[in-house]
C-alpha cells in the first residue's frame, strides 16, 4: 500500500488479519499468574518496546472512569504492582473506589491480557524498597511534581525541580509520604490471542473460593 493510498483510508477501513498463533484452553496453565508470566517472558524475549506498559483504568465512587498508561513494576502470586503519587487522579480514585482494571497489549504477538481486581496500597517499607532502586532524577521528579495538579507553565515545573534538586544536593533522597505503591489483586484475567476472520481465542480465569475457574469466551 502506498503512502498516498494509506492516507486516504478512513478509520473504519483500518484493519489487519491476525494469524500468528492459537490459544487452547487445554494448553494454558492452571494458574493465570503462571500463564501471564509465560506470556510476559515471550513478549520480553521478542524485544518489544515498553513491554511492561499497561493501561490502568480507575473510576470514582460515581463510576466515572479514567484510563492512562502506567508501568508494571512487579508480579507474584498476590498480584500486580505499580507506583504513583497518591495525590494524582488515579491515586485519589483508587482511594475512594479500590476496584480497577489493567490491560496489556503486545501488537507484534497479536496478544492482549485484561485484568480486573481490587487494589490496595503497598506497605511503606515495600514502597521504600522500590524507591531506592529508582534513578536519582526520578526520585527528584517524584518530590517536585504534584502529579495531576495544574501548573502555570513548564518553567514553573522546571523551577520546582531545581529547587528540590538543590534541597537534596549531596543528600539521600527519602521516599515521599505522598508517593508509593499499589497492588492489584486479580479476580478475573482474560488472555486474548488474535485469530483469522476475527475468530479470536479468549481464555478467561475467574477466582472462586476453591481456586481459578477457566473457560472460553466467544470473540
* Class per helix and strand makeup: alpha+beta
Number of DSSP helical runs: 6
H and E order: HHEEEEHEEHHHEEE
| Number of β-strand runs | 9
CATH class: Mainly Beta
The major pleated sheet works out as: 9 strands, antiparallel
pLDDT under 50 segments (min length 5)? none
Mean pLDDT score: 93
Radius of gyration over C-alpha positions, nearest whole angstrom: 21 Å
Global morphology: globular
Number of domains: 1
CATH homology superfamily: Electron Transport, Fmn-binding Protein, Chain A
The proportion of strand residues reads: 25-35%
The name of the CATH topology is Pnp Oxidase, Chain A
What's the architecture, going by CATH?
Roll
Percentage of residues in helical conformation: 25-40%
The protein's oligomeric status is single chain
What is the CA-CA span between the terminal residues?
Answer: 29 Å
Describe the protein in words.
It is a single chain. The protein has 219 residues and is an alpha+beta fold. The protein has one domain: Electron Transport, Fmn-binding Protein, Chain A (Pnp Oxidase, Chain A, Roll), CATH 2.30.110.10. 28% of the residues lie in helices and 33% in strands. It is built from 6 helices and 9 strands. A hairpin with a 4-residue loop joins strand 5 and strand 6 (111-121). Helix 5 (136-144) packs across helix 6 (154-167).
Kindly list the characteristics that best describe this protein.
6 helices; alpha+beta; 28% helix; 219 residues; globular; Pnp Oxidase, Chain A
Amino acid at each position: 500500500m502506498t503512502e498516498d493510498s494509506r492516507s486516504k483510508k478512513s478509520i473504519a477501513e483500518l484493519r489487519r488479519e491476525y494469524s500468528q498463533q492459537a490459544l487452547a484452553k487445554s494448553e494454558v496453565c492452571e494458574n493465570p499468574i503462571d500463564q501471564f508470566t509465560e506470556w510476559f517472558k515471550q513478549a520480553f524475549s521478542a524485544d518489544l518496546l515498553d513491554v511492561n506498559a499497561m493501561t490502568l483504568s480507575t473510576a470514582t465512587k460515581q463510576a466515572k472512569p479514567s484510563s492512562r498508561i502506567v508501568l508494571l513494576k512487579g508480579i507474584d502470586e498476590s498480584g500486580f504492582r505499580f507506583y504513583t503519587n497518591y495525590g494524582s487522579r488515579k491515586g485519589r480514585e483508587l482511594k475512594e473506589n479500590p476496584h480497577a482494571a489493567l490491560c496489556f497489549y503486545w501488537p507484534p504477538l497479536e496478544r492482549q491480557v485484561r485484568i480486573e481486581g481490587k487494589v490496595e496500597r503497598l506497605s511503606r517499607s515495600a514502597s521504600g524498597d522500590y524507591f531506592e532502586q529508582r534513578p536519582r532524577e526520578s526520585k527528584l521528579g517524584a518530590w517536585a511534581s504534584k502529579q495531576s495538579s495544574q501548573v502555570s507553565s513548564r518553567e514553573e515545573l522546571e523551577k520546582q525541580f531545581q529547587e528540590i534538586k538543590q534541597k537534596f544536593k549531596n543528600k539521600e533522597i527519602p521516599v515521599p509520604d505522598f508517593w508509593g505503591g499499589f497492588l492489584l489483586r486479580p479476580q478475573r484475567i482474560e488472555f486474548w490471542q488474535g485469530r483469522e476472520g476475527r475468530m479470536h481465542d479468549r481464555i478467561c480465569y475467574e477466582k472462586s473460593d476453591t481456586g481459578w475457574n477457566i473457560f472460553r469466551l466467544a470473540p
